[in-house]
Amino acid sequence: MKPINAGLLGIGTVGGGTFNVLARNAAEITRRAGRPIRITRVADKNLDLARQVTAGRAQVTDDAFAVVADPEIDIVIELIGGCGIARELVLQAIANGKHVVTANKALLAMHGNEIFAAAHEKGVMVAFEAAVAGGIPIIKALREGLTANRIQWIAGIINGTTNFILSEMRDKGLPFDVVLKEAQRLGYAEADPTFDIEGVDAAHKITILSALAFGIPMQFGKAHVEGISKLEAEDIKYAEQLGYRIKLLGIARRRAEGVELRVHPTLIPARRLIANVEGAMNAVLVQGDAVGATLYYGKGAGAEPTASAVIADLVDVTRMHTADPEHRVPHLAFQPDAMEDTPILPLSEVETSYYLRLRVEDKPGVLADITRILADQGISIDAMIQREPGEGESQTDIIMLTHVTREKNVDAAIAKDRGAAGGQEEGDPAAHGRAGLR
Ligand code: NDP
Ligand code: HSE
Description:
By secondary structure, this protein is an alpha/beta fold.
């Protein structure tokens, strides 16, 4: 089928990730989308970088408007960032009848009302899964999965940089500036990192989520925005002593009188799941009246996690383009004619770690026999404990956790172990047990 052509504007952290993941997983993505998706043109101010990443696989320019004007381009992917040139490019792309995919939360929170109105007028899509919580499909969850619900509130760790800073300060006692530099090096931070630190980026994101959850326009200007710059290491320590963790939360809550829209550091009881979201990970809790609370967790920043969301949007737009309307969103995710006959493996071929409990005679040489039998099957031991035998007992328990191995190796070892471990009956469930992944 005829490929769909995309023009990429900005091949920095997210643009580079998008180009690479799309190339790496091209065959699988085509099986899902129903047509190949190709980035045929790339615009970046940094031509050397663009040439290096594309390595001859796309036409490169430093004129983003030329890409937006190209009649061969079906989808424009805006990954430049900011509200200046990016706004002009997106509006121009829409005016030219092109679909747009963007990760630019600042642009949508500030100018989304204008952009969506223009897209509505022109009958094109503006897709923005990557704009909130990186690789987590929270936009799809709110817009599609939770449509039955009256959403009551959303609370999320939606800025990876600040969560990374808070985690590293608490766990490693590192100073703020050092951790921020590391977040920048890892590609998590915004071009202007004060957007992260002062809560502006999280406020852009919660503004977008509030619009999707409550059916209200983007109202970034009315959000309360407070970051982590005034927090000190002592606050983190004292909160810990009181049994809390400090997290920068974006909160949108519907009340009878209106909507609370706020970003600020928040004390969360340490035992809560969301309090244990560490590093650049994000988590979003959504409370709906029918479903109750649902939690979405994953990588909130970085090249490939964000690319994952950008490409999901590309596939969505492509499916919309697919000629046969019945196959736009395939029932089983892949197009019916692209299904593969990959075998389901029998249990004996399953690879995992195992928990083994062996009832053995408490006498010299037994442990050596067991470890030899395991070694013969290529099974390596991760951890082991031996129970002290009770008074007058001649037998005891040895408990082992193995490294990853195959079920059939464990079965073979257990069969041999029975003799060495003191003559347990074959198939005696007390002689062994197994647990799935650790
Ligand atoms: P980068 O700064 O890494 O990449 C942006 C690229 O665009 C740079 O190569 C930049 O070149 C180029 N550029 C700037 N101006 C122009 C122009 N006029 N024409 C062509 N190219 C231009 O940013 P990110 O990839 O980190 O972010 C991109 C977008 O994705 C932003 O909206 C950001 O908020 C969003 N985002 C980022 C995430 C992340 O983890 N990094 C996660 C989710 C969303 P130069 O460097 O020379 O200026
Ligand atoms: N700077 C953002 C963050 C990137 O740290 O979460 C992802 O939107």
